[in-house]
Design brief:
Blueprint: E1 2-6, H1 17-22, E2 28-33, E3 43-47, H2 63-84, E4 91-94, H3 104-107, E5 112-116, H4 139-147, H5 150-158, E6 161-164, H6 167-171, E7 181-183, E8 201-202, E9 208-209, E10 215-222, H7 229-242, E11 247-253, H8 268-275, E12 285-289, H9 293-302, E13 305-308, H10 317-324, E14 329-332, H11 337-340, E15 348-350, H12 355-367, H13 373-386, H14 389-405
Parallel strand pairs: 1-2, 1-4, 2-3, 4-5, 5-6, 6-7, 10-11, 10-13, 11-12, 13-14, 14-15
Antiparallel strand pairs: 8-9
Helix pairs in contact: 7-8, 7-12, 10-13
């Protein structure tokens, strides 16, 4: 069996499944992507050259689609090069969000295809129009948002089956498409991501944080509004006043991964620090940038309260990993957080926009840590029972791949325990 994984940032969501397939006798696994990625055992990583961007005069509705077509063309040429070297896949697993899957069917018409459908855009009811609340989208902007789905619609037509990580993300796709999309999460390695009572996290100034310290944590790839960075920052003045021993550690880069930079500052961090100038004890606020995964696990282990806020959008791995490490998670009452987090059972929920209430919740947690011990334990149980890599998600993903490869559709996936 020959399997091709296609992802701009390979391995991406295929980090675990690609080597699992490569370990099977008789399997040849190739990963195709633009950017350099981690080496995976048994997987050959092939890169393609970055395509040209959309033209400056392209209509703004279709700039993203033109960029997707250019990328799809580049990937098709890379696929032809693989074909000329003798590689013809039996199965293609592809994240089509950037256009990489548009033309693979034209290169390999007989290959089976499983596409990772991450998010389908709407002009209401999800991320668009969410912040600030109550805003009314213009018809012009609603038309632009509708056009964002062009690449997905073409990909839905060419894929044999689809996969998405949560039921809420699946629910965003059109009625006619949902029956051909399975909700299978990539999974969390709960053996690696687990509480460590001996953990130590060293700050840039040399101070060492340990379990039992008043450490408030916030993690995102980018410090940006999509992940509630602005709300969290606005909660800090009251939090730091009420808890003089608290240390706040924020992980993430200044470049936004979703949305755009602020118009009046170089980053959202710069903008929020300027907005809150004079209200924050900056000696107790620590911006780490992006850190290695082992350091992240140590940070979760010393966390007394972990805040995860998000627009109704894709769910971050960091939230589930924090729960696996028995963090006391305070999440926004938004989808798809509420698919995982149950208030008072395995964590706490907060109104995304209410910075004052968020501060009060964190203050209450820091003041009475023993009261929330069972929520921490249940948070890890939730991840183990629903999102564990080895016992839940990897078996489901392998079963899905086998069903697509052998045309046994719809797939029958292993049930949760």
């Amino acid at each position: 069996m020959r399997v091709l994984f296609v992802h701009q940032n390979f391995p991406g969501q295929y980090r675990h499944i690609a080597p699992a397939l490569a370990a099977r006798p008789g399997y040849q696994v190739v990963g195709l992507g633009e950017n350099p990625g981690d080496e995976l055992p048994g997987v050959q990583h092939v890169r393609y050259k970055a395509p040209d961007p959309a033209g400056e005069k392209t209509h703004r509705y279709i700039k993203r689609f033109e960029a997707a077509v250019r990328r799809g063309q580049t990937v098709a040429r890379a696929a032809l090069a693989l074909q000329q070297r003798g590689f013809t896949p039996d199965l293609i697993c592809c994240h089509p969000g950037w256009g990489e899957g548009l033309f693979l069917r034209d290169v390999w018409p007989d290959a089976r295809t499983l596409f990772y459908f991450e998010f389908y855009y709407h002009s209401s009811g999800a991320d668009v129009g969410f912040d600030p609340p109550g805003q009314t989208l213009s018809v012009d902007e609603a038309c632009r948002v509708r056009t964002l789905n062009t690449t997905h619609l073409l990909s839905l037509q060419t894929a044999d089956w689809g996969q998405t990580p949560t039921e809420w993300q699946r629910s965003r796709f059109p009625d006619w498409a949902r029956p051909r999309i399975s909700a299978v999460h990539e999974g969390v390695d709960t053996v690696a991501m687990r509480p460590n009572p001996a953990a130590r996290f060293t700050l840039a100034d040399g101070r060492v944080l340990v379990p039992g310290d008043e450490v408030v944590t916030f993690v995102g790839r980018g410090l940006e509004p999509y992940r509630g960075f602005h709300i969290f920052m606005r909660a800090l003045p009251a939090l730091l006043r009420a808890r003089p021993q608290a240390q706040v550690v924020m992980v993430g880069g200044d470049d936004p991964h979703y949305g755009s930079k602020p118009k009046d500052a170089t980053s959202w961090r710069e903008k929020l620090l300027a907005e809150l100038e004079g209200q924050l004890d900056l000696s107790r606020i620590h911006f780490t940038g992006k850190i290695p995964h082992a350091s992240l696990q140590a940070l979760y282990s010393v966390s007394a309260a972990h805040v995860y806020l998000t627009y109704p959008f894709v769910l971050s791995w960091s939230m589930l990993e924090a729960m696996a490490c028995e963090c006391l998670l305070i999440g926004s009452a938004t989808a798809p957080v509420q698919e995982v987090l149950r208030a008072g059972e395995n964590g706490l929920l907060a109104d995304f926009f209410d910075a004052e209430a968020l501060a009060e919740t964190v203050i209450r947690v820091l003041a009475n840590p023993a009261e929330y011990r069972e929520l921490r334990v249940e948070a890890r149980r939730t991840v183990q029972s629903r999102y564990d890599l080895r016992t839940i998600c990897l078996p489901q993903h392998l079963a899905l791949i086998d069903a697509v490869a052998t045309r046994r559709l719809p797939p029958k996936l292993p049930h949760l325990p």
